[in-house]
Amino acid sequence: MRFPTARRAVRSLVAAAVITAGLVAGNAGAHAEDDPRVEQVRQVIAALKPLVKQPVCDQVPEPDRWVDAGIPDKGSANVLISAHRGANTLAPENTLKSYEYAFAYGVDMVEVDVQQTKDGRFVALHDSTVDRTTNGTGNIADLTYDEVRALNAADYEPWKGGEYDPAQIASLEEILALAQRVGRGVELDVKGSVTEEGKLAELVGKYGLIEKSIWNSGDPRILVAEPGARIIYNRDSWEPGFLIYEIGQVAKVYGSTLAEYSPESIAAAHDACAVVMPHAYDAGAEQEVAQFQLARSMGADGVQTNQPALIVAAAGEAVHSRLVVHRQQKAHGDDVCLVNAENGLGFPGKTVHLVKGKGKKSINLTTGHDGCVTVPGVNWRGSSVSFAGDGAVHASTARLVPSKG
């Protein structure tokens, strides 16, 4: 398919290179300089390089380590964590609540599947159709923003009929405002319905999030609008170390599955001052921590995860918590909320312990929506409240206000 402008031609070239790169090499020369895929990728690099504005890389390259790394690199001291579609095991994927719960755990960014509606607005949805996760049908590109927002984004298992049903598909503006408020970034996975990448980049820039965010797209219009945008390159297994290093001149983040990486490819990316953040979830939910640990042992700087709480704990980066008591009317039990002490976002599914009368009376309660739980009745007023802490969230204490009289 031909595109009428030079920018569209580069976009086509990017797509062709990605498709070609995905082919499995069938001969011994697949990793050599004369592999035709090398030249195809280099053409993309040459087209994008004049548009990229990144800090000067002062890393001295060590090409020998791209072949045999020896002792693997040590990844970033601050583990980079991206929450895939938000905290999608705690709330429906790509909803504002899933992003709030992810940021409660202090992740560096949330991954957002960006779609564009018929009338040009940006929303968060993974599929090209609304069928799987909502009560609607059809292509999202054929629906207006208002039509999309009227859908129930919790109309699928395991959320249907639960406390998050109904839910609303999040607008990109809502997510960007949330990220701005907590001082974190967004990983933008730009989907096929998006036709105005420049407009999208300008919107992210409006919220001051370009430096904190990363882009799963090589469309040059992003860089034309925001030259400081960081592009993700989804590594395949065929690229030789020298090409990984060259790609790092335009793509400062490496993603894709962990199986595509080795200490050598990570060393080549680091020599280009890029960071490596493979998926932790491809081997299944029970293997996420093990995959994270394997990635770190090879030198990766972080991961993209479905379970941010587990990865935060495994990284040793637990966040501080605070117990907040909301006094209710005299005849009703108070609300207790366990929240991130820095940004005020709640932790659902945590156990808080109430003790009254020198330990003679106690009860355990589990936090729910927004990290809150209602104390059963007024007789617990004056009790001490505590959260014992876990690997992802530090302990905290509070006290219910005593009843008057």
Automatic annotation (TrEMBL):
Domain GP-PDE span(s) in chain numbering: 79-315
Pfam short name (any one): GDPD
Protein keywords: Signal
SUPFAM superfamilies xrefs: PLC-like phosphodiesterases (SSF51695)
The keyword Signal is annotated on this UniProt entry: yes
GO biological process: lipid metabolic process
Signal peptide: 1-32
InterPro entries, sorted: GP_PDE_dom (IPR030395), PLC-like_Pdiesterase_TIM-brl (IPR017946)
PANTHER family noted in UniProt: GLYCEROPHOSPHODIESTER PHOSPHODIESTERASE, CYTOPLASMIC (PTHR46211:SF1), GLYCEROPHOSPHORYL DIESTER PHOSPHODIESTERASE (PTHR46211)
UniProt-recorded name of the protein: GP-PDE domain-containing protein
